[in-house]
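Weekly puzzle thread! Below is a chain. First person to post its structure in token form gets bragging rights.
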Amino acid sequence: MSVGVSDCCPTVAVRPERPLPGPPSGNGPAPPKAGGDETLPPSPGRPPLLDRFHLLSQLGSGAFGMVWKAHDTDLDRIVAIKVPRQECLDAGQVRRFLEEARACGRLKHPNIVSVYEARRHRQGVYIVAEFVSGQTLAERLEQGRPTAREAAELCRTIAEAMHYAHEAGVIHRDLKPSNILVDDHGVPHVADFGLAKLAADEATMTAEGQVLGTPGYMSPEQVQGDSRRVDRRTDVYALGVILFELLTGERPFRGTVQRMIHQVIEAEAPRPRSLHGGVPRDLETICVKCLEKEPRRRYPSAKALADDLGRFLDGRPVKARPVRTCVRLWRWCRRNRLVAGLAWAVFLVLSAGLVAAGSQWVRAERAAAREAQIRGEIETLTEKLLDLAERLQKLEQRGAPSSLGRGSRAELREDASLRLAFSLQREPPQPTGLQTEARATLRRLEQLSPGVARRCRSAFPQLAGGD
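Winning reply:
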């Protein structure tokens, strides 16, 4: 049996109900026994009677204070009484504590733990709230992770309750599994509204190196202490963390307090499917939208979140859309401008080097291909010229009449020399490559056909050198 305790100071540990024996005392009728509970014996700090309430058993305690199961002797009902430690509250905080609790006492919703009253007594203040028989959502998670559908149903019910509170002008600001009670029928009830606002104002302050509050469930604007940006979308973020934990069994950000605060502000929340592959994609998309760093990118209200969860449960398309990788990268760059700038500079330098190297390689490949093409053309023309020159020489040596007239032989020589000159003109030969071969070819032509060789030399005087 347990009841939620809010976190003005570090988290209160909720323990199973523990009866403390002792005879009833004080004025008024003795309370009925409930499950073997008895009222407390008179002792310092543990009065058996608090005004008209008989304290039956202690439900939980922590740095903030204690929670008691009590019997209301006037209305004959079991209630939960939360008594904060007086050192946690100064005079101003006491006044605000009472104002917040009374404001939340106007919330009447089946999934919100009702605050009956907030009262002063000679030892300080206390609030009287509805007693819910069951366990906290945190205790339920310790027993095992619910199914995806059960998680969606729980969060939809909580979101609807939160929308009701938001419409009444109340922002919880401290939503987490230990502040959600699940009754014996599996129905969730949101608790500790009256203390959440008080705790939120202190949430980002430190005491002896500890952050007050629960950073793992706090939105970036809460962690940064930007109270002006805290609104209903802050509770939507906390609902996203709760949904994440229900789906995966873990919170999005873990580690030391300082590490969690840094992650909440700077790091992107992991995708639920990266931790548990069985999470439905649409439910993952809904969860990721709740966990957006910028409030404007989250659901605008808890009602919008509840509606999208309802679409998922009904098998209809959800309105949330997955965040593309390029968008996530851009957002990371905006949050880490220095690192992104350095990475971009390195990328540009590497890219410039790769482009320069690639350009040099392309030019070298083109030059090699061009050289091979010209080499082939020269070799072909040279073979034709040599063959023509040998034929003409044989005909002249035998003194036999050639089948080609003198005019035809001159035309052939002229054509061959011009074609060779044209090929060489297209790409001036390099001294160490084509030029050497061209000179060797001319020397052979001088032996076989001096006329052709002379025409080539006259067309390319630069080939005259080096002979």
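Puzzle host: Confirmed. Bonus trivia for everyone else. Residues 134-338 form a domain with the Transferase(Phosphotransferase); domain 1 fold (CATH 1.10.510.10).
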